[in-house]
Amino acid sequence: MLGRVNHIAIVVPDLGKAVASYRDTLGASVSAPQSLPEHGVTVVFVELPNTKVELLEPLGEGSPIRSFLDKNPSGGMHHICYEVDDILVARDSLIERGARVLGAGEPKTGAHGRPVLFLHPKDFFGTLIELEQV
Ligand SMILES: CC[C@H](C(=O)O)C(=O)SCCNC(=O)CCNC(=O)[C@H](O)C(C)(C)COP(=O)(O)OP(=O)(O)OC[C@H]1O[C@@H](n2cnc3c(N)ncnc32)[C@H](O)[C@@H]1OP(=O)(O)O
Ligand SMILES: [Co+2]
């Protein structure tokens, strides 16, 4: 079922500072910020040879990462995104195997314009998993 790691996501309290740190201190190539109100986040991607790092800042009221940031005010690792060939096949098989798919179970369009789903962190050793169809 699982393909490549598409990205590792880090929630940050100040996206501008995080971009400067990755760009200027770590010398990395960082994309322009994307505001995703439907997801309640603003994101940038740090391009790496074998995967990406997604830096996330809460956007607006009701952001799903606000509570995470309240608990981790300096920021922290938030989720890992695995690629899948067919997100609906993956979803149905995961539900059949007892995993909880977050939201209404219907894929949303992610930052890359592709369908994504999230799996409950409590089902996977305290790790929030995102699946992205590629
Ligand atoms: C899709 C656009 C973009 C992309 O890549 O394309 C993104 O990745 S957007 C990313 C932001 N969106 C999401 O994260 C959507 C899915 N997340 C959620 O629905 C929530 O964050 C949820 C349900 C995982 C947690 O919500 P919340 O923190 O408000 O709930 P609780 O405080 O009740 O948490 C329940 C329980 O889970 C623990 N928790 C929460 N977040 C994480 C996490 N990221 N990793 C590990 N564990 C997490 C939290 O501590 C609670 O544990 P407990 O022991 O019960 O205290
Ligand atoms: Co993500």
UniProtKB/TrEMBL annotation:
<keyword id="KW-0413">Isomerase</keyword>
<dbReference type="GO" id="GO:0004493">
    <property type="term" value="F:methylmalonyl-CoA epimerase activity"/>
</dbReference>
<dbReference type="InterPro" id="IPR037523">
    <property type="entry name" value="VOC_core"/>
</dbReference>
<keyword id="KW-0479">Metal-binding</keyword>
<protein>
    <submittedName>
        <fullName>Methylmalonyl-CoA/ethylmalonyl-CoA epimerase</fullName>
        <ecNumber>5.1.99.1</ecNumber>
    </submittedName>
</protein>
<feature type="domain" description="VOC">
    <location>
        <begin position="4"/>
        <end position="134"/>
    </location>
</feature>
<dbReference type="Pfam" id="PF13669">
    <property type="entry name" value="Glyoxalase_4"/>
</dbReference>
<comment type="similarity">
    <text>Belongs to the methylmalonyl-CoA epimerase family.</text>
</comment>
<dbReference type="InterPro" id="IPR029068">
    <property type="entry name" value="Glyas_Bleomycin-R_OHBP_Dase"/>
</dbReference>
<dbReference type="InterPro" id="IPR051785">
    <property type="entry name" value="MMCE/EMCE_epimerase"/>
</dbReference>
<dbReference type="InterPro" id="IPR017515">
    <property type="entry name" value="MeMalonyl-CoA_epimerase"/>
</dbReference>
